[in-house]
Amino acid sequence: MSSTDYNYDEQGQFFPYFVITVTALVTVPVTISWLRPSKELESTASRIESNFKPEHADLIEGQRKKQKRRERRLKRALVSVGGWLVICWMAYLMAVTARTIPKIWDPYDVLGVSRSATEKQIKSHYRKLSVMLHPDKAREDPAKNITKETINDHWVEVTKAFKALTDEEIRNNYLQYGHPDGKQSFSIGIALPKWIVTEGHGKYVLLMYALALGVLLPYTVGRWWYGIQRITREKILVASAGKLFREYDNDHTDGAVVGVLSSGEEFNEVLNGHKADNGLSKLEQKVLADGTSLSGVLAKKERQKLDDLDESRRRKVLTLLWAYLGRIELDDENLNDEKYEVAPVALRLNEAYTAIALAYSNTKAVLSAYHTSQNLIQAMRPGASPLEQLPHFTPTVAAAAEAEKSRTHMSIQEFMRIPAEKRKARVVAPGFLSASQFEDAMTVASQLPVLHVERAFFKVVGERFVTPSSLVQFVLKCRFIPPGATNVPAVKSSDLEDIDPEEGDVAAITGRKDDKSGEKPIQPPLAHAPYFARNHAPRWHVFLADSKQGKIAVPPFSFSTFDKPIIDETGKPTFNVQTMKMQFGAPPQAGSYTFVMHMICDSYVGMDTKMEVTLKVEEASKAVEMGEEDEISEPDEDTIAGQMRTLKSGGVSRSSKPRKRVAQDDESSGSDTEGDVESESETDTETDTDEE
Amino acid sequence: MWPFDAVDWLTLSIPFAYLTILIGSLAVFSNLYRKRKAAKAASLEPWFPPHIQRNVYLSLLHMENPKVPDSILKAALLRRATEDIHRIVQIREAKQAMQVLLQRGSVGDDLWQRFQRAEKEIEEELRDVVNEANAFAPNWGQVIFQSASEMAQNQRIRDRLSDILSTAPAEKEWWEKRKAEIQSNFMKELDDDEKKKADAAASKPSAKAGSDDDAVIVESGGPAEKAAKGKKKKGKH
């Protein structure tokens, strides 16, 4: 490196620019990601208003805060604050350091004319100046420190400048290169202070390089890689996923799933060190004692499983989970705290378990997994009365509310259908609920989002029939009807139809435009889950099952946002008809297929919908019956023969398409299950044929 | 000596030292890495718990004094085959799900390795059982699994049946209780009714209206009302 080619930044005037650029490259994106509000469902949804404070609300709130602290982006905050400090410091340095570039004598400046001035203008300006500045004309002014000498000097300068500018060559040099002598040699500088490369410091610089490339880089890459390797798609540890898979069984009931979940490695973080068996015996006494709400629920099998566990940690986890689900008071601050801490972890594991159950595509197992999610969010033991989701409803109150002594439970919707007076008489009594508690429960109940299916049908976009192997849409028309809602308006029949998108609108047809990018999707309020130490946005899972084989035919589609407002400004339900669509491939053989549609909300117990739907697949020949004459000898456009033909005939084959559409219009029967036809697709095709 | 005097040994040693360190460290790393990998693979948990039925069969087979009779050995072999059937069914069911999950990244590679090992193990096990069976009786190997699967099926059905039957006492108890409750409620209602009637009869002279009979008559209404009332009153007194 010869010093003649490069010069280092000895005065430290360029170094700050370099540092500022590099720092800004890191700081600005980090700051943006730090300050941007989270777009997660949980942070944007509204809440269900309730005055209800469960027992140990402080512990649950504490858990929520703990989670928030974990989510707080502390590292990003530190980096961005540090980055901005560095930037400020560098800006300060830049402002303070004097530019040492020697100022080039600029005749334009001296004369005070613009660079675009013509020679004529310059001359006239010079003449004007000469009137004012010529030593014979200008006046001395001792007050302003203008002496004869300064006037003389200034005039000499002006004359020089005028000479320079009137010389064609010099003027051009100025205009092109900014220098009277023409093009200047330019120098390359390195924006590093010279001390970095001076003798003696070189080894430290080398050391820094070695550290950065040899230690820091491999470390970060390794950490990232192994971090990814440890975590599965469902964001749980790989080891946990393995255990869940091993323990999975098609016949697991809701209670057994809880047992499986306790095998997760994630609980080691919750119960680390001595926490693993602190208070285990006390806990077991409390949970397994007769007379708790669990005694009827913990079937022999589950109890057996608990007894069979050798590992104390897992045993404690499972007992804590049961204590949480049974809402059992543990009389111990720490144990109660741990009780609320294990539930969210279990819910995360349950998601992974659901994925496993879906891979087996066994209806019963998937339902158990979903029900476990409901139970975990609502802190309810399997088989409990759904009424216990309401504030202040204990098992005894729920039993009194149900009144009818049947073995199946009453859902909240059914309870709210009972006339208000009768409802109140059942539960408002000494020993049960006070009037204000009852009011609390009723306000919560009337805000719960219960999705009510109004219509379900199959269709193929732009076709009248579902043909074999076509892409079928399963359309669900639903309304949110809160329990106990009175004067629910009747559904408009126009709302129940599904309008086909425009023919050319490929994005809409393929379902990519479903979210309506411009509009903000509507979210139902967060789940009312006073015992669950996280915010949870409810999701609805819809899937089709084959009831004969007990297998899932169409895997679940999850819906968490909707297209129309659920409540208006005053908080009243709007009863808008929401549309949910799921796409799948039709079976390759014609015939009628009966599925059982399950719609399950993952957050509330007792709001599942189950109904039979029939998919009628017609022979492909029926759909093209009339167009057959054109179609029959014509090879498909996809095949080579077809393409050859298209080339030869110059696109004649296209003419057959409109004919086919005409044929379709003449067909009279509909494609979907309920037999009515989308009039819109009809109009579309008609306008098309008119144009031809 | 010419060549050796002219060489600057110190400077020459530097590249060699560099090469030695580089190659040496790479060799050490690869060695350690392989060892660790092998150890990890060896320490993978087996998919299935120890095969008790097989162990029982083998211990019986190797008992020398006194020799175990053939019938017992055959029974033990059948038990072993039944357990194998359970395992192979489990493996077959899990395989498809496992492949889907592995593809999506929902389970780790470790699990897949364990699974494949279990699969191979079960294949070996089946072959072994067939050989053993053929040693007892020619061609038994071809049907032993058929009988074993029937046994497994039978066992499963029995388990389920006993599961269902075991809920019977609880159901019965609940129903008995419910029945008793209904009965007592009914009896109470009857008692109440009679009591009311008695009360009504006792309080009749003082109270003009309020008895059940009156209410019925009023409901039927009409012009005959007064007469009927009068008649009734007369009749009762």
Question: Which helices and strands occur, and which strands form pairs?
Answer:
The complex is a heterodimer of chains A (692) and B (237).
Chain A: E1 6-8, H1 15-35, H2 41-44, H3 57-71, H4 74-96, H5 107-111, H6 119-133, H7 148-166, H8 168-177, E2 188-190, H9 202-230, H10 238-247, H11 254-261, H12 267-270, H13 280-288, H14 300-308, H15 312-325, H16 333-360, H17 363-378, H18 395-402, H19 412-417, H20 420-427, H21 435-445, E3 451-459, E4 471-480, H22 506-509, E5 540-546, E6 551-559, E7 577-585, E8 591-601, E9 609-617, H23 620-623, H24 628-631, H25 640-649, H26 656-666, H27 679-691
Parallel strand pairs in A: 1-2
Antiparallel strand pairs in A: 3-4, 4-7, 5-6, 5-8, 8-9
Helix pairs in contact in A: 1-4, 6-7, 10-16, 11-17, 13-15, 15-16, 16-17, 26-27
Chain B: H1 2-6, H2 9-42, H3 52-61, H4 70-104, H5 109-136, H6 140-166, H7 168-203, H8 212-220, H9 225-236
Helix pairs in contact in B: 3-4, 4-5, 4-6, 5-6
Structure description:
The complex is a heterodimer of chains A (692) and B (237). With 692 residues, chain A is of the alpha+beta class. Chain A has helices at 15-35, 41-44, 57-71, 74-96, 107-111, 119-133, 148-166, 168-177, 202-230, 238-247, 254-261, 267-270, 280-288, 300-308, 312-325, 333-360, 363-378, 395-402, 412-417, 420-427, 435-445, 506-509, 620-623, 628-631, 640-649, 656-666, 679-691; strands spanning 6-8, 188-190, 451-459, 471-480, 540-546, 551-559, 577-585, 591-601, 609-617. Chain A has 6 domains: 6-96, no CATH class; 107-177, Helix Hairpins; 199-230; 232-384, Orthogonal Bundle (Sec63 N-terminal domain-like fold), CATH 1.10.3380.10; 386-445; 451-620, C2 domain (Immunoglobulin-like, Sandwich). Chain A has 27 helices and 9 strands. In chain A, a hairpin with a 7-residue loop joins strand 8 (591-601) and strand 9 (609-617). The two termini of chain A are 76 Å apart. Residues 512-517, 626-637 and 650-692 of chain A have low confidence and may be disordered. Chain B is mainly alpha-helical and 237 residues long. Chain B has a domain at 22-166. Helix content of chain B is 83%, strand content 0%. Chain B contains 9 helices and no strands. Chain B has helices at residues 2-6, 9-42, 52-61, 70-104, 109-136, 140-166, 168-203, 212-220, 225-236. In chain B, helix 3 (52-61) runs antiparallel to helix 4, helix 4 packs antiparallel against helix 5 and helix 5 (109-136) crosses helix 6. Chain B: It comes from Lojkania enalia. Chain B: Keywords: Membrane, Transmembrane, Transmembrane helix. Chain B: Residues 186-237 are annotated as: Disordered.
